[in-house]
Amino acid sequence: MAKKRPQTRATRPQLTDGEIPVVGAREPCPCGSGRRYKACHGRAAAHAVTELVHRPFEGLPGECDWVALRELVPAATVELPLKDGLPEGVPSVTLATVLPMAWPALRRDDGSVLLGLQNDTASGDISRDLADTLQRALTAEPGTPVQARRAPADGPRLQDLLDAEGTFEPVVHSGFEFWIPDTENATPEVTASLERANAAAIPTVKLAGVGAAYWCETPEKNHLRWVMPHPEEQLLDALARLHAAGRSSLGEGTRLVGSFRAHGLTVPVWDLPSGVGADDVEKPAAEFAERLAAALASDAPLTPEERRARGGLTNRQVTLS
User: Fold this and answer.
1) 69 Cβ contact list (under 8 Å, min separation 6)
2) Average pLDDT, whole number, for the chain?
């Protein structure tokens, strides 16, 4: 019997993880392992893309307002300062809640950039997806929209691109006319999209006296939705203390009805009578902020009444994201 010859393997290139290119999921992995990409280096890449970041806007100026504009406010814009300044030919970068045709971003004819916030994203990190869209918008041809795509797992996040010392000052609009500098030359598709968006927009006003609190008007009643930065458990304890003491309202006929949970932050919600406008709740909201600060400072155990109030608030909590 002939002896079996020892098998030899071809020398494979030794690639580091940082050198592995992205290929199709069913294609051989470029590292030379012989396995498909999705079962080799693609597994870690897919996990990085899909892993949920619970507070994607943490560390950005105005985190609470980022959450509000992402989830609650129909029409608003904010000027975004970039860490390295504006590139040549880009006069401004503006964050917008929604863009025409649900575009992720738009490079206008004058070179300015509009970045849409309320679009669906491909990964579990909204910040990384928005940063990828912003980078592509900065180099897009003027007059063209930027299409959606899966952001690279090792790409930058908004925290890497925006000026951490800059301000975040939303301007709330009654409609979406900011889309179109020149309405006479708008395409029929954009005009139709504008009409649909304006018809669906709920009147919304940002309070001036407290941070990230937004009044909105609905046919049956009005609401105040207030995004707060405090740790959830501590905030719920404080709200329960005030609710049990009958001090959680914003005036006659108003009622704290529950809260949303959105992007790692808690958003208490008050029902307001239909006749109560944004100006009417400015002073009550400022007074509530003082009561809340005192309740947040307490570390005393909750009383039975406060625990029942907390249970009621928790049962009425809705997770948006």
Assistant:
1) 76, 78, 95, 97, 117, 118, 170
2) 89
